[in-house]
Amino acid sequence: LSAKRIGDRTPRGLKLLGAAVLLSMSAFGCNQEMRDDGRLKPYEPTPFFEDGRSSRPIEPGSVARTGVRADQSFAPAAAQDEVFLTGKQNGAHLTTLPMPVTKELLERGKERFNIYCAPCHAQDGAGKGMIVLRGFPPPPSYHEDRLRRAPVGYIYDVATNGYGVMYGYWDRVEPADRWAIAAYIKALQLSHYTTAAAAPAGAATAAADASHGAAVAQPGGGGGH
Ligand code: HEC
Q1: What percent of the chain has pLDDT over 90?
Q2: Rg for the chain (alpha carbons), in Å?
Q3: How far apart are CA 183 and CA 180, in angstroms?
Q4: Which residues contact residue 196 at a Cβ distance below 8 angstroms, ignoring those fewer than 6 apart?
Q5: Which residues contact 129 (CB under 8 A, 6 or more apart)?
Q6: Which residues line ligand 1 (CB under 6 A)?
Q7: What is the dihedral of CA 126, 131, 132, 138, to 10 degrees?
């Protein structure tokens, strides 16, 4: 159909077309009862679930796929806290974790780190992960002085918003897990800089036979995979 022929259509022709469309619509309309299948409309009640709602509650840890900041809309009230979400207090990065440091926290951080960060940063944090070996720009090592001195809130901030060519993880990793990762990175850094002299007397022999004590901070180790 050429542009010229479309232009040739008379208004009367268009009117006829419109009438035909309306007619076909009303014809389908008669059929509505039979076409009402089991699909539920938003907010439509249903006896299927105990609470009578067809819309299901959002699972904890769900993240929004659109531009909504997931951490601000779905996090439990306690975690809506500005400091917790941004890693900053009065514009300065937190130097301590906003939660107690526990073995569970570090183990969770290690697990999440190895999933989300190690592909580039490597399990030891030195920055030679598989994606880097395949050509992605190499990140700096976590063990260089500048990053070793960086407050834990800064690590959390980078994990959240990204840095340079690294994208942020605000929509993939929930805030509590980003803190766990930041805590683990700090432990990783510490583990690289503990000298025999700084360790308490007897620590060297203790470390030799009791690897469990250092398990959470071992660079890339202890994973057993
Ligand atoms: C796809 C690769 C990739 C992944 C995955 C990745 N990073 Fe990065 N990261 C980089 C690169 C590249 C840089 C350096 C960016 C630049 O300088 O432009 C970087 C830099 C950093 C820095 C240092 C910022 C600075 O001041 O120099 C930190 C901290 C960091 N990443 C933390 C993380 C954490 C935490 C995760 C996991 C949640 C993560 N990264 C996942 C590639 C990655």
Answers
A1: 47
A2: 29
A3: 5
A4: 204
A5: 118, 119, 120, 121, 122
A6: 116-117, 119-121, 131, 136-137, 139-140, 147, 155, 158-159, 163-166, 169, 173, 181
A7: -70
If you measure from the C-alpha of residue 60 to the centroid of ligand 1, how many angstroms do you get, rounded to a whole number?
A: 26
Q: Residue 54, class by beta-carbon neighbours within 10 Å (0-12 exposed, 13-18 middle, 19+ buried)?
A: middle
Q: In which band, very low, low, confident or very high, does the pLDDT at 225 lie, cut at 50, 70 and 90?
A: very low
How many whole angstroms separate alpha carbon 213 and alpha carbon 206? 9
CB atoms within 10 A of CB 152: 21
Q: For tokens 């990065």, name the residue.
A: 93
Atom of ligand 1 nearest to the CA of 119: 5
Residue type at position 146:
R
**Which residue's CA is the nearest one to ligand 1's atom 3?**
120
Q: Whose CA is nearest to atom 19 of ligand 1?
A: 139
Instruction: Check residues 63 and 131 and name the one with the higher pLDDT.
Output: 131
pLDDT digits (tens, 9 = 90+) for 21-30: 666 665 555 5
172, 35, 179: which is closest to 93 by C-alpha?
179
